[in-house]
Amino acid sequence: MRTPSVRPFLTTRGLVPENQESPVHYIIPETTEPRFHFRRNHFAYPSLSPLSYWLQVEGHVENPLWFSLQDLLALPAVTVPALLECAGNKRGLFEPVVYGEQWEKGAISQGYWTGVPLKTLLEKAVVKEGAAEVVTIGMDRGKRPGTEGSVSFARSLPLEKATHEDTIIAYAYNDRSIPFKMGYPLRLIVPGWYAMASVKWLRQIRVSEESFTGPYQTEDYVCYPDKDSDEGAFPVTEIKLDSSILQPMQRAILPSGSHTIHGIAWSSTGVIARIYVSTDGGTSWSEAELDPEQVGYHWTRWSMEWLDVQPGNYTILSKAVDASGAAQPETAFWNRNGYGYNAVDRVEVKVEE
Amino acid sequence: MRTPSVRPFLTTRGLVPENQESPVHYIIPETTEPRFHFRRNHFAYPSLSPLSYWLQVEGHVENPLWFSLQDLLALPAVTVPALLECAGNKRGLFEPVVYGEQWEKGAISQGYWTGVPLKTLLEKAVVKEGAAEVVTIGMDRGKRPGTEGSVSFARSLPLEKATHEDTIIAYAYNDRSIPFKMGYPLRLIVPGWYAMASVKWLRQIRVSEESFTGPYQTEDYVCYPDKDSDEGAFPVTEIKLDSSILQPMQRAILPSGSHTIHGIAWSSTGVIARIYVSTDGGTSWSEAELDPEQVGYHWTRWSMEWLDVQPGNYTILSKAVDASGAAQPETAFWNRNGYGYNAVDRVEVKVEE
């Protein structure tokens, strides 16, 4: 007798460069296995030669330094449970529609990242008076429409966020070396910010007195609220409070009877106070059961028993509330490039006899 | 130096039972590799014991027979290039929305199927006068909402289609044993009909004087044009004329300049006469280049060079015309369960500087 394995896969949104979505609807463990971790790239994968690997710390510092992997492994390590969410997660849900990879609910993954606080390296390099930002540069590089020549993927953080104790130079994910596609050998991890900040294949850290103006800082990952002009533009930074209904699936057909509705909720701090669920399109709401153990910046699972459901069409909604009492909005803040969608989640199902 | 492989995956629509979509946008070869073949199941996979495998032919025949795999391999074989398309392919595009697996463009795959014409077996069994249908029964079985007890996946064909020379009991796909998930060891292949007719894990063939009334014949795979009543219902049979734009992808952002638009077109006979493509939402149309070699029931590739494209938003449409001169409709024929979507295909893209 054969027992065929049935497993989910990444959902392919593009291959050149590789952009694939995590099958979040089918993942039960707290942490995302690397094979199911979403992949979001701006370029082809870089070619690495790890034997000659050095991480450079330079710029507005007293002591420019080069760290080998051995140097980093010798420093005191911390482990941070962190969720990474692409700023374009759920882009496909915006109305009016926006262009770019049409991510659904799976541009989000999480696990335990281990490494050295960026602050430790900056202290060793001794940041000079007047420093404002820390620029982090990856080894991925290539052509970008609208930019002359070729460009590295690079991002900056304000000094305050760069020196936050949970902002780390990670060398391990779930207790193993970071898998290549996830940023081996070193990845900046910026918990609480959208994942464009968590630069993969890190090669250089530059302390700066000025605002960084790379295209992934000042053109992409910027919210443009106006469809034609750049008026009112502001940068994408912290992860917004959000929730997803993972089961049932959008437009599923269910038998009548009892069902469990379940999903996840997350925020920039990881703290979720309450989840409300509606099964009648928002006329009435019930508080769902939240997993009491909230781990670091990870999402929190929630569930609600939906009992004795009769045939008909239903609209299920989920709405998260954070520690400050703020709730997810009814409608997402529209912006031209489709970042930060976080409206109350919505799934329509049909219940048959 | 590492060279990471970048490959597409099936898109998961459900795991219990397994329903996964082919990554058609990224597949170039004429035939679909088994790992990229779409999977559509009504039940968990059956447990097989191939050593004791017999295919039974019975019912309204003079000589009920049991065929072993060896018996079938000893009979004259034919190879048929056949496309399989789920009747629910593109269901997610219907408006108003319909419920069930939200297939996009990938519930379609193709390859070379080898086996024995069903007609050969029916001739050996000697069909009696008065026979009307041939019922084919798979080994997959389970509970179905709305049906008492458990039920096998079973379908019937009118005698005329069952005895068509291209309707075969296949034992090979692309010159190898049929992969388990695709119906090993024997699968009925009914070219030109939607794939519910191509019963997997075939175990029994029953000739009948009466119309078969199994739930997958008379409840599912029936077009209900009315949203509330069963008025005007008719069965799903032949594949409809259709085309898909495979690249660019829906809501892609493209650089200005020249691009190739490419896709596939198919029909119940495999013959495509012409493809028209519009890049201005249907105001003007150009004839695309069709692959001159049209193979059996396989889809035909087409492409069009889109030259010197300036920044702006564009709606690309594709419309296939078959040998009779019939064209794809502007709007798909709406039906409650969402079968046979075949409207002119539509992709919206944004071209930037």
Which structural class matches the secondary elements of chain A? mainly beta
What's the shape of chain A? globular
Number of strands of chain A: 24
Give the ordered list of helices and strands of chain A.
EEEEEHEEHEEHEEEEHEEEEEEEEEEE
Fraction in helix of chain A: under 10%
The oligomeric status of these chains comes to homodimer
CATH fold title of the largest domain in chain A: Sulfite Oxidase, Chain A, domain 2
Structure description:
- 2 copies of one chain form a homodimer.
- Chain A is mainly β.
- Chain A has 2 domains: 225 residues, Sulfite Oxidase, Chain A, domain 2, CATH 3.90.420; 111 residues, Immunoglobulin-like (Sandwich), CATH 2.60.40.650.
- Chain A is built from 4 helices and 24 strands.
- In chain A, the strands form 6 sheets. Chain A has a 5-stranded mixed beta sheet.
- The first copy, chain A, is globular, with a radius of gyration of 21 Å.
- Chain A starts with 10 loop residues before the first strand and ends with a strand.
- Chains A and B meet through strand 1 and strand 24 of A and strand 1 and strand 24 of B.
- Chains A, B: This is Sulfite oxidase.
- Chains A, B: Keywords: Metal-binding, Molybdenum, Oxidoreductase.
Secondary structure: elements and pairs:
Two copies of one chain form a homodimer.
Chain A: E1 11-15, E2 18-21, E3 39-40, E4 55-59, E5 65-67, H1 69-73, E6 78-85, E7 108-117, H2 118-125, E8 133-143, E9 150-158, H3 159-162, E10 168-173, E11 176-177, E12 187-189, E13 202-208, H4 215-218, E14 222-223, E15 234-235, E16 242-247, E17 253-255, E18 257-266, E19 274-278, E20 286-287, E21 289-290, E22 300-309, E23 312-321, E24 345-352
Parallel strand pairs in A: 4-13, 17-24
Antiparallel strand pairs in A: 1-2, 2-3, 4-5, 6-7, 7-10, 8-9, 8-13, 10-11, 10-12, 14-15, 16-18, 18-22, 19-20, 19-23, 21-22, 23-24
GO molecular function (chains A, B): heme binding; molybdenum ion binding; molybdopterin cofactor binding; sulfite oxidase activity
Keywords (chains A, B): Metal-binding, Molybdenum, Oxidoreductase
Domain Moybdenum cofactor oxidoreductase dimerisation (chains A, B): 236-351
